[in-house]
Amino acid sequence: MKKPNIVILGAGYGGMMTAVNLQKSLGVNEAHVTLVNKHSYHYQTTWLHENAAGTLHHDRTRIKINEVLNSGKVNFVQDTVVSIHPEEKKVKMANGDIEYDYLVIGLGFEAETFGISGLKEHAFTISSINSARLIRQHIEYNFAKYNNEREKNQERLNIVVGGAGFTGIEFVGELANRVPELCKEYDIPREQVRIINVEAAPTALPGFDPALVEYAMNSLEAKGVEFKIGAMIKEVTPNSLVFEKDEQREEIPTNTVVWAAGVRGNSIVEASGFETMRGRVKVREDMRTNEYDDVFIVGDSALIINEETDRPYPPTAQIAIQQAENVAHNLKTLVRGGKDLEGFTPKIQGTVASLGHDDAIGVVGSKKLFGWSASVMKKVIDNRYLLKLGGFGLLMKKGKFNIFH
Amino acid sequence: MKKPNIVILGAGYGGMMTAVNLQKSLGVNEAHVTLVNKHSYHYQTTWLHENAAGTLHHDRTRIKINEVLNSGKVNFVQDTVVSIHPEEKKVKMANGDIEYDYLVIGLGFEAETFGISGLKEHAFTISSINSARLIRQHIEYNFAKYNNEREKNQERLNIVVGGAGFTGIEFVGELANRVPELCKEYDIPREQVRIINVEAAPTALPGFDPALVEYAMNSLEAKGVEFKIGAMIKEVTPNSLVFEKDEQREEIPTNTVVWAAGVRGNSIVEASGFETMRGRVKVREDMRTNEYDDVFIVGDSALIINEETDRPYPPTAQIAIQQAENVAHNLKTLVRGGKDLEGFTPKIQGTVASLGHDDAIGVVGSKKLFGWSASVMKKVIDNRYLLKLGGFGLLMKKGKFNIFH
Q: What sequence ranges are listed for the domain FAD/NAD(P)-binding (chains A, B) (predicted)?
């Protein structure tokens, strides 16, 4: 009997953990497992804002795929997915094609810019190691230039972050820690630098408990972050951002706009003919697409509805990691000839948003957490993932243990 | 009797050491000594190429003026010199005027671009802490952008240095050490990066012994530096450099041109009506100008002729430091009512050019030095200056002791 080919596209949280789970649970003789990814490394998307701010080096955030996967059990192909052809059970990559019996699509997210003028062209997004270290360098380059110009350009020192959701808040928290260091490095007075967070919704951190939101905003404002809440971004140019609040337009001179207010699924999935909503594929209970019994979707590419609220679950690492366990389990069942696939339900254990290196807010179970204890909890969550992904060795190498900073 | 006002313009090697020498030799009741400088710090111009390459942090290169000077003995004014009025014994600064009885001009150098098209607008110069850290960031920013663009731009990875004199050679030596680190940081293959040194003269390091020049070029070529010798730069644009060699024109795509091939005296001196050659004032034997008995010139602002060759001495730190001793001595004589000023003759003790962190070439006395021993000698020279400037404490704080790297 021919061994089935399982092909996993993308080494984000969902794809990577699917591969790791299959590596643990499937025997070498049961299936060929192949993981396809653009880079030779996996990275923790939820740490990228720290790399972008410059408070954590990106080598702490990325993990070489061949350090985690056993090449005897999972074949890793470094290539870029171009298109998926489910009718032909084939994936086109930049350097070749690959055929599958079972496919797992975990191609992650991309920025959703809602057609705001100039946003796509001029704003940065925190979406990869490459884009995160570019943001770090872009900010630093503007600081370095500031004192080299006779006419001082305030646009070099204004940093605008679009969106006060989870990522936006975590990013301005890191910036608030980083900016004083940059001021020292480039002889710039701290009060000259502005960190401005623009949010269209009527509150920061929509969905969080108001007491937590208030704590977060007070804490960040104390560190010099300015909030523009209920403010719609209207236009971004190479050196300005225009927003509208209370029917007033305001223009901020800035060379640095970081967009953290909207994501959608990777457009390759939509372009390959899957039915999507904002690029995400609505899946069956067992994480397969409605159209194809041999195609699973994990992570940000998958759309699942929270029945309590009748709205989609947000794309989070926590859910992607849980889905990967489910998908790996169901693949094992199919490979072994079973038919009884398991349904997936997220178990939201907790959500903690960092506000810089020693501060955070969050909910774990029914308990609200503030300040230092929340920031320790955040690191515990991050460390648990590393343990799950690569065991104790990886935890020791990449874990966050600086709880007393 | 009124105490005379001694005003020193510029805290480079010449001005700073004049102030330090006066602080040691003059009593508080003998004169008011004032040092005027744009920044609150002195810096070692001969280390700036390391800051520009990113191999040494600029805080190692700069020294806070108030850490070296005793404010009870020398008054430090942080201001920018606008113009000098020797007939009125007055100096105009951005924020006020200052009157003097004796003036010491040590305003340093600026780039001489010989009218080459686009050079002034688009090339960087290694001339200050601000310009050096901007070069470091400019190079790094281009590396960071490289992998963020779908179409790869080779101009981001080509670094062209104009001039294979002392500074040009030392800078490419540091770049050769730095580039592999940058390649690792930004996931760029080393062979993709070019470091190109363009020199118009028929040899690199003109004036050096041919055996030393050959050693230097071989050593640098082995580390991946390309030399274009006898090549005239014709034009610089934001993303290219054109040179002509053997009647052939060649264009190099590059965003980074660093000009290290020509200096002239600070143009403020010329604009203030002093008679200059390339911005440098030809001085009498006792370092005073021909026109004014109360104006001394030190460092790169001063032009003195080497009688053996009938050509000007090059502007070096070594000579500036020696001149400062002479000028301080003569000022002491004048303040005390003496008339018998001492003439100045440079004593060239040695010249060592670094080729990166553990390699160098040079001449000390009549002895040629190569490789590691030369690089140790270079650090000994640097450390001796720190000892002279600020004593043992400063040497310990800023000295170079990594001789076994």
A: 5-324
Greater pLDDT, A307 or B91: B91
Q: B388 — contact with chain A (CB < 8 Å)?
A: no
Spatial neighbors of B258 by CB under 8 A, at least 6 apart, are B52, B123, B124, B125, B126, B135, B159, B160, B161, B162, B171
Q: Stretch B65-93: mean pLDDT, rounded? A: 97
Q: Tell me, what DSSP letter sits at residue B341? A: P
Closest to B148 (Cβ–Cβ): which among A134, A147, A148? A134
Q: Which residues pair with A84 in a beta bridge?
A: A91
Mean pLDDT of chain B, nearest integer: 95
pLDDT of residue B405: 52
Residues in chain B with CB shorter than 8 Å from the CB of A147 are: 130
The yes-or-no verdict on residue B249 having pLDDT over 60 is yes
CB contact residues (below 8 A), chain B span 113-132, against chain A: 130-131
pLDDT at B117: 97
Categorise residue B10: left if φ over 0, alpha if ψ from -120 to 50, beta otherwise: left
pLDDT digits (tens, 9 = 90+) for A272-287: 999 999 999 999 999 9
CA A370 to chain CA mean position, Å: 23
- Determine contact, residues B200/B232, Cβ cutoff 8 Å: yes
Q: How close, in Å, is residue A121 to chain B by CA atoms? A: 12
Q: Inter-axis angle of helices B13-25 and B371-398, to 10 degrees? A: 50
Measured in residues, chain A has a length of 405
Residues of chain A with pLDDT under 50: none
Does A119-259 match A5-38+79-111+263-348 at the fold level? yes
CB contact under 8 A, B141 and A145: no
Residue B401: the pLDDT is: 87
- Residue of B134, B186, B187 with shortest CB distance to A145: B134
How close, in Å, is residue A297 to chain B by CA atoms? 27
Q: What is the CATH number of domain B5-38+79-111+263-347?
A: 3.50.50.100
B170 is catalytic: yes
Domain map (residue ranges) of chain B? 5-38+79-111+263-347, 114-261+349-405
Active site residues of A: 170
Residue B38 touches partner A, C-beta closer than 8 Å: no
Q: Which residues of A touch B134 (CB under 8 A)?
A: 144-145, 148
Query: What's the CATH architecture for B114-261+349-405?
Result: 3-Layer(bba) Sandwich (3.50)
Residue range B176-196: average pLDDT? 98
> Cβ separation of B148 and A130 shorter than 8 Å?
yes
ipTM of this model? 0.90
Token code pair at residue B55: 């191999």
Give percent of chain A above pLDDT 90.
92
């080598």: which residue's tokens? A59
> Which residue in A130, A133, A144 is closest to B137 by CB distance?
A144
Q: Does B402 touch chain A (CB under 8 A)?
A: no
pLDDT at A262: 87
Distance in Å, alpha carbon of B186 to nearest chain A alpha carbon: 8
Among residues A26, A1, A373, the alpha carbon closest in space to that of A212 is found at: A373
CATH class of A119-259: alpha beta
Contact B145 A134 (CB under 8 A): yes
Please say if the pLDDT value at position B60 is more than 70. yes
Cα dist. A373→A47, A204, A218, B98 in Å?
19, 21, 17, 58
A44-73 pLDDT per residue, tens: 999 999 999 999 999 999 999 999 999 999
What 3-state class would DSSP assign to A74?
A: strand
Task: Give the class (CATH, top level) of A5-38+79-111+263-348.
Answer: alpha beta
By the CB < 8 Å criterion, does B71 face chain A?
Answer: no
Contact B137 A141 (CB under 8 A): yes
